[in-house]
Amino acid sequence: MDYSQYEEQEKKRIETAIRHLERGVNFVDIRTAYIDEDVVIGEGTLIGPCVTLERGTVIGKNCCIYQNSRIKACRIGDDVEVQSSVLIESQVGDGTKIGPFAYLRPGSVIGRECKIGDFVEVKNSSFGDGSKASHLTYIGDADVGKDVNIGCGVVFVNYDGTNKHRSTVGDGVFIGCNANLVSPVKVENGAYIAAGSTVTADVPEDALCVARARQRTIEGWAARRGLYRKSSSGK
Known about the structure:
The protein has helices at 3-22, 221-224; strands at residues 26-27, 34-35, 40-41, 46-47, 52-54, 58-59, 64-65, 70-72, 75-76, 81-82, 86-88, 91-92, 97-98, 103-104, 109-110, 115-118, 121-123, 126-127, 132-135, 138-140, 142-144, 149-150, 155-157, 167-169, 174-175, 180-182, 186-187, 192-193, 198-199, 208-209.
């Protein structure tokens, strides 16, 4: 591409952004917004610096798409916040908060008033209204109900080395930190999964699932093997 072609491309990009500005879209820095021509953005939405909105994207009213976000072929509802995240071929309901550093992969359908937090990845999954996954979680090939709480470090183990499998989580389920759901499993409404559990079988409604070994403490084990030395200060 020679310089004249670059100039023409930049001119079209700024003209596209200005058209959105005239329709009530707000920009932090209009010079750094990258918006494909067919993108639709609702009135009152804020576009941050270095945001890329790619072909097929529709964004509702009064959203905040903060800096360094990329959205491709997605449908975003009203009053949605996206912070420094990547969303591809997915849907997001009204009032939901995404990020920072979240990743919605193709086929993800996120409900209303949800939270997909930092370093959470969702792939080919549905996520019911009011459900939350706030930190460091992988949700792959799953159908998650309403008002579900998914703790930090939870993994939906959807691949057995040959095939992908799908899991179902009912409404009002609580999944504790660092739990693994080995698909395919079904966790029914209102069930609780204890932190650190590896779930390999279905969990009934209102049940508590604890799938981990009981802690055992052996006093003095490290010292007897010469693996532990007190410091010279005796602390």
